[in-house]
Structures are given as structure tokens and as C-alpha cells.
């Protein structure tokens, strides 16, 4: 099933997890965020990860996310993928993340975006610059995956609201948020967020039933 963009909530996209646990029907959505928010990964803390004065001054909410990974900024100009389904193994997280990342690469290839590769633990990158971050939450055989793909968003917001992370992949090489991340637009791809969302929806709808 697919849903429109979720309302602002304390925990991002957790309604999909509740829907799956209630119905046992795979639940998913692909959407462009309506506004700007800071989202903490599981185990992360606002103090230390977030430049709280900037977020408060701009009225930017700090939300929570099921699943690991670092603190992120969501904003218009991104395409967010969130899905919940049952899988065969309570382990194999890297394998599952790589499989779903492959769907994102497939969708991007369909609209002419070439050369996307996995870097770090489960990032997607063009060369040595990051274009997507992902996270996974597990509850036994239930897998909850989320990714944010940078299409045409303002990457300057990352440095305004986020401190330098305490844990980074080697390929970041000490770069600032804005130097480490790019968007499809900055990489020269003239694609609209709606086009990216539509391509992702097609691929997720086709591939999700086979993820086991």
C-alpha cells in the first residue's frame, strides 16, 4: 500500500510500522517532505547532534526515528522512502539494506541518473559525494527501512542545524556537511522531485513483494 506524506509526528513514519503490525500487509510511502525538520536516529541525542539555537530560532522541530544512523535534516527537495515488511531472517541487515538501495539505484537509472554506488555502510553516492542516507529498524522478522534522497534540497541547512557527526564513514574524509553531500540537481541532473518520487513508487511497488 502507499500513503501520502505523513503529518508531523514525534516519530517519523512510525505509523507504517503500526499499520503493518495491525494488518500484516507491507506498508510503504514515498514522499517529498512538506517542511524542514531535524530527525534523530535511535540512540542519538539532540544535545551534541543538533545546533539547537538555530533550530529553535527557525522553528524547526526535532523529531525521532526508529532505526540507527546519524541525525539528519529532512526538507523540501528530498525524496523519502519508508517501508515495512516481513523478511525471512532476523539478521542480514546489510544484505536487506543493499537490496533496497538497489531499488533506488534502479529507479534513478530509469530517469537517467547513472553512476550511483553504495558507499560507507549503506549510503548512496555519486563518486565521493553522498546523495542518500538510509536506516533500518528491526523487530524480529519485521524490517523497517527509511532513506532520504537528495534531489534539489538546500544542503546548506545541514550545516545550520547539525554538528559534525561523532561517527562518519571513511570516504567522508573530514569534509563539511555541504562538501560531503550533493543533490541530483548539483550533479547536473535536471529532474523534479515528483519525477523521482514516481519512479521510486513504481520500483518499490514492483520489488517489495519479493524481499524475503
Please provide a written account of the structure.
- This protein is of the alpha+beta class.
- The protein has one domain (14-210): 2-Layer Sandwich (BirA Bifunctional Protein, domain 2).
- The chain contains seven helices and nine strands.
- The protein has helices at 14-23, 46-49, 52-58, 93-110, 156-161, 177-180, 193-207; strands at 27-31, 37-40, 62-64, 72-74, 78-86, 116-119, 123-126, 129-139, 142-150.
- The strands form two sheets. It has a six-stranded antiparallel β-sheet with strand order 1-5-9-8-7-6, sandwiched between helices. Strands 3-2-4 form a three-stranded mixed β-sheet.
- Strand 8 and strand 9 (142-150) form a beta hairpin.
- Helix 4 (93-110) packs across helix 7.
- The protein is globular and about 40 Å long.
- The protein starts with 13 loop residues before the first helix and ends in a 5-residue tail after the last helix.
Blueprint (SSEs and pairs):
Elements: H1 14-23, E1 27-31, E2 37-40, H2 46-49, H3 52-58, E3 62-64, E4 72-74, E5 78-86, H4 93-110, E6 116-119, E7 123-126, E8 129-139, E9 142-150, H5 156-161, H6 177-180, H7 193-207
Parallel strand pairs: 2-3
Antiparallel strand pairs: 1-5, 2-4, 5-9, 6-7, 7-8, 8-9
